[in-house]
Design a protein that fits this description.
Layout lengths: L1 H33 L2 H8 L5 E6 L7 E7 L5 E3 L10 E6 L2 H9 L5 E6 L1 H13 L4 H9 L1 H28 L11
Parallel strand pairs: 1-4
Antiparallel strand pairs: 1-2, 2-3, 4-5
Helix pairs in contact: 3-6, 5-6
């Protein structure tokens, strides 16, 4: 009895965390889209349509998110799944190791897209053209000098992380192509 109620509580907590993550992801995505007027314009023509984003192979992440396009050209998370039937389904293909290898090689994530071709074209444009300038956002909070220094530090950590990922990818399956010495 105790194990059953604990399991139910754990599933409920995971569902709330997933909903919160979807809300924050949607806010962040809308922040990116709103910073690029052409992105909003492209999405406005698809108002009312729904996009389903599925992350199923990226253990421990299992995410099935529906986003409805608003008349403003932004997204709204559909938590209950009661919105319109998805016009487009986007699945992230591959597992976490494959994604890390792709990232090290300078490739983006592998996507499998099913559905409306016009909407798929505009979503592809968003993926290729939207970039997050975290230093600009940080500068609004703490000022440009601190944002610049944090950006420099992040660049150093990014290089270290990329080197570690290259070595991990080498050790996990590509012994003939060792990472370059730094």
């Amino acid at each position: 009895m105790l194990a059953t109620s604990f399991g139910a509580a754990l599933r409920g907590t995971a569902a709330r965390a997933s909903d919160a993550g979807a809300e924050y992801f949607t806010l962040w995505l809308n922040h990116l889209i709103a910073s690029e007027p052409q992105a909003c314009a492209r999405l406005r023509s698809h108002a009312g349509r729904s996009v389903r984003v599925v992350l199923s192979d990226l253990a421990p992440f299992q995410w099935d998110l529906r986003l409805t396009i608003t008349p403003a050209g932004l997204f709204e998370a559909d938590m209950g799944g009661e919105g319109p039937h998805p016009c487009l389904t986007v699945r992230v293909a591959g597992d976490a190791v494959q994604m890390a290898r792709g990232w090290v090689a300078g490739e983006g994530a592998r996507w499998v897209v099913e559905g409306n071709a016009d909407l798929a074209t505009d979503i592809d444009w968003l993926v290729k053209n939207l970039r997050w300038d975290f230093r600009d956002d940080l500068a609004r909070l703490v000022g440009p000098l601190v944002a610049h220094e944090v950006g420099q530090l992040a660049r150093v950590f990014s290089g270290v992380a990329r080197g570690a990922a290259e070595r991990a990818a080498y050790l996990l399956g590509n012994p003939r192509n060792p990472p370059a010495a730094r």
